[in-house]
Amino acid sequence: MKKFCLLLLIVLGLTPIIAQEALPPVFPYAENGKWGAIDKEGEILIKPKHNALSLFTRADQPNALATVTNEEGLMGAVDRKGKLKAKIKYKYVDLNGKGDYLIVTNQDNLYGLVKTKNKKEILKTEYKSIRRFRGAKLGVSIIRKGDKYGAINENGKLIAEPIYRRAELKDAYKDYPDVKLTREDGSAFVMDCWGDPVKKTARGGMVDDLIFEDQMIEEAPESPPPPKSATRMVEMDGQKALEFTTTYNRKTTPEKDTIIGIDQVVKVFHRYKSGVGYCVDFVIAKKGDLTGIVNYQNEVLTPFEYNSIRQRGGRNYFELKKGEKKGAASRKGELIFDARFDTMKLHSNYTVFNVKIGNYEGYVDREGHIYLPEKALK
Predict the structure, then answer these.
(1) Which residues are CB-contacts of 199 (< 8 A; sequence separation ≥ 6)?
(2) Which region among 216-230, 231-245, 322-336 has the lowest average model confidence (pLDDT)?
(3) Sign of the C-alpha dihedral, residues 22, 352, 339, 32?
(4) Can you tell me the distance from the alpha carbon of 85 to that of 93, in angstroms, rounded to the nearest whole number?
(5) Rounded Cα distance, 79 and 53, in Å
(6) What does the pLDDT look like over 327-341, one tens digit per residue?
(7) Alpha carbon of 342 to those of 186, 256, 324: distances in Å?
(8) CATH class of 20-98
C-alpha cells in the first residue's frame, strides 16, 4: 500500500495540473421575495423560486455551491445551475469544504456527510459531531458517534471507525495530515490520511539548550503626536479654494495642500508620507449644498451629487445618499456605485454589498457590478 501511494504521488507530481477555467461569478437575487441566481454577464441561471438562497462558494468556479431553503425552513444545496447537490431536508448544510462532501445536520442536531455527486449520505445523520476537513491536499475529518471517535478522509474513506476514546489531527494544515487515535486502555497510535498506521521513527539527538546573553530591551519610542492641520479659504485662479496647512513633529516647516473649488470641508482623511508623516489624502467636501470626495491632487473621486456622505463599517466604505436612495464609495473615497437603491449594506464577508430596489434584492461587488436583472434597474 505504501509503495503504491508513493508511486501515485510521483505520477501526480509529474502530471501537469490543469486549473479549472474561471466562469462569470454567480450571485443570488430575489424577485418578489423568491430567490434565484444570476451571473456577471446577466444570464439568469436559477429562476427565482426558492425561499432563500445563500451566497455561492467559489462563485466563479464550476463547482460553486449555495444553500437553498424551502417554505418549511429545511435546507439543501444547489450548484450554479440550480441542480440539487444535497436534498432539501436538513436543518443545516455546511458549505465550508472543497465541495465533494457536505456536512449536514438533521432536526435532532445529529450530523451526517453527503456526497454531492449523488446526494447520498455516506455517513448517516447519526453522529454527534463531524468536524470540517483539514489538510491542504487530502483533508481528514474527525467524527464522533456517541462518546467514541473516528476519522474519515476527503475521498469518503472511513479510515478509523468511531470506536476510540479520542482522535486528534496532527499538523492539520499540512498536505496530508495524520490522525492520532487513543484506545480505551490509554494506548495510542498514529494513522495516516489513507488509513495506514504510521511507523515510529527513532528520535533524533537532544539539542543543547540555547543560551542567550542578557540583552537590554529598549523601550518603544512614544508615538509621534498626530499632525496638526489648519484650514483657511483662499482665492486661487479666480475661484474659492481650501488651503490645508499641516505641521508634523519631524518637519519644522508646515506643508500646504490646496484643494480648489470647494466651499466646505466635512471631514479630512490622511495618508502616510515617508519621511514626513501623515498628510492630507482626500476630503469629504461640499460645493453648495451637495457633497463629494476630492483628493489632495484635486481629483474628484466621488462626484458632488450627494446630499450626504457618511463613513461606515470602520471606514470599510462610505455610504452615499441622494434623497432616500443609497450608494457606496470605497475606503479610498472612489465611487463604487451610484445612489439608486432603497437599502444598501456591506455583507458580513466584506466583499459584496446587499442591495434592495423595489421588489428586487441582490448584490453589488466591490468593482460596482450589479447582480440584478436589467428590468430591476429601469
Answers:
(1) none
(2) 216-230
(3) positive
(4) 11
(5) 11
(6) 999 999 999 999 999
(7) 62, 40, 7
(8) mainly beta
What's the pLDDT at 227? 57
Q: What is the pLDDT of residues 24-51, one digit of tens each?
A: 999 999 999 999 999 999 999 999 999 9
- Cα dihedral across residues 283, 286, 292, 296: positive or negative: negative
Does residue 157 sit in helix, strand or coil?
A: coil
CA dihedral 149, 151, 156, 157 (to 10 degrees): -110
Residue 287 half-sphere exposure toward CB, CA atoms < 13 A: 16
Of 32, 61, 26, nearest to 46 by C-alpha is: 26
**N-terminal to C-terminal alpha carbon distance within the chain:** 63
Helix/strand/coil percentages in the chain, nearest 5: 5, 55, 40
Distances (CA, A) of 179 to 72, 82, 100, 197, 283: 39, 37, 21, 9, 55
- DSSP labels for 342-368? SEEEE-TTSSEEEEEETTEEEEEETT-
Which uninterrupted H or E stretch holds 12? helix 2-14
Q: 247-256: buried (b, 16+ CB within 10 Å) or exposed (e) per residue?
A: ebeeeeeebe
Place of cell 500646504: 256
pLDDT at residue 209 tops 90: no
CA distance 46 to 100: 21
How many residues are given for the chain? 378
Count other Cβ atoms within 10 Å, centred on residue 94.
17
Tell me the C-alpha distance between 58 and 60, whole Å: 6
The whole-angstrom separation of Cα 316 and Cα 153 is 39
Scanning the structure block, which residue is given the C-alpha cell 460645493? Answer: 287
pLDDT at residue number 3: 47
Question: Using CA atoms, how far apart are residues 363 and 350, in angstroms rounded to an integer?
Answer: 12
Q: How confident is the model at residue 239 (pLDDT cuts 50, 70, 90)?
A: confident
Give the CA count within 13 Å in the CB-facing half-sphere of 209.
3
CA distances from 110 to 107, 114, 146, 280 (A): 7, 13, 10, 56
261: left (phi over 0), alpha (psi -120 to 50) or beta: left
CA contacts within 13 A on the Cβ side of 155: 8
**Interatomic CA distance for residues 265 and 242, integer angstroms:** 8
